[in-house]
Amino acid sequence: MFKSIPCKKQVYLSGWGRYASALCYLFRPERVREVAEVLQHGGMSSYLPRGLGRAYGDAALNSEQGVLLMERLDRYLAFDTETGLLRCEGGVALADIIATFLPRGWFLPVTPGTKFCTVGACVACDVHGKNHHHDGSLGNFVRSLTLLLPGGETVCCSRKQNSELFYATVGGMGLTGIILEVELQLRPVETAWIVVDYVRTRDLDDTLNTFHERDADYLYSVAWLDCVAQGRGFGRGVLMFGRHAGAGELPNAQRQNPFGIPRKRDKKLPLDVPEFVLNPLSLRVFNNLYYATHPARDSVLVDYNTYFYPLDSILQWNRAYGKRGFVQWQCVLPYENGVKSLEDILRTAQQRRAYPFLSVLKRMGESSGGMLSFPMPGYTIALDFSVRRGLFEVLDELDSIVLGAGGRLYLAKDARMSAETFHATYPLLPRWREVKAQVDPNGLLQSDLARRLRLVEVSK
């Protein structure tokens, strides 16, 4: 019976950016049958599955309604040691997959910038990584999904079976069904190390030209941008091109344990950074220091944690932006007119004195086909802004540039985009709505993001 899953008192939840927050009723199922019992007998008018809470905005919030904490549905169900095909429950964390299978020679095919998220949430956001220009997003490596539909039915879907439901779920923000199981193709690797080439660029043209000239030769590529620099240094950056190291490339001492990496003590931000520390002058000093200490270097051996997850070693790093939190604004701009649009975004932010404290640029390849998936061929830039007065008006201006360029914003990072902008930039929304109406006619699966962006038509 339902009493086996007690409802906790209302708890404040927030996105990772700590800007969006909501009072929610929490449920913590430990078995699939308990998930079904909550949906049928939990007493809420809507529910939302939530992983480890790393979505930046309101994608994992459901104000005054039910939130299913999925992290205890974290069992491995099957693994093919020959092919690397993994079947697991949706609550398995990426960190656990790495810890379990990297020593066996398998790594994630695509990873976002944190390993502290569940595989189900990653499918729901169709996450991308530094290899999107080469491999696309995670959805390309999902072989099948098992969903619990709002009506209680368990359904399997893939590119060949219930394909419309599959493509509505990959990138569907957890709104088409509870992702119970994921069949995921892992990547074979020989070591836990990445060979990295660092390239320091002079300006924005040099940054983009270097991407186009070199990233076809590397599995991974990413750039840090100095968004404070002006004049001749406008758009300068540090590019990091990487590939998995072969066993023969390791020093002799490491070849005996190619999957071992140095253990580092995690740091922790115990308090919010005071807002007066976050100012253009301190940012300029930091950017100049970062740029100066990252000269061009080739064939540097870096462990996977340092390359993929530099911020994971700082627990509660989201407190670095002050008590009001931060928003990460991430867009993708099609290559056609993408250079001009990118320049317009950076110059507008500078002119409005909205300086991002972290700026990351990547190139993207083809879409996975997910109806609400973010990636498309083009440039993607992610900018972290501390929340302060006047910021959202600036971001509205940046949204307009993206809209004019034919781009879009990333739902997993968004906390404030307008419904009008969303509807104008996700052309497959009507198709997604049709699938949503079929599998969830009563709108049982909802979120604050879904209501804000009007993903589902609300009857008047």
Shape: globular
> What is the structural class?
alpha+beta
- Which blocks of ≥5 consecutive residues have pLDDT under 50? none
Strand content: 15-25%
Sheet with the most strands, sense and barrel status: 8 strands, antiparallel
Strand order of the largest sheet: 16-12-14-13-19-20-18-21
Distance between the termini: 36 Å
Q: Give the CATH H-level superfamily of the largest domain.
A: FAD-linked oxidases, C-terminal domain
**Average pLDDT level:** 95
Helical amount: 25-40%
Q: What is the fold named in CATH at topology level of the largest domain? A: Vanillyl-alcohol Oxidase, Chain A, domain 3
Q: Using the CA coordinates, give the radius of gyration.
A: 22 Å
How many helices? 14
CATH C-level of the largest domain: Alpha Beta
Tally of structural domains: 2
Q: What is the number of E strands?
A: 21
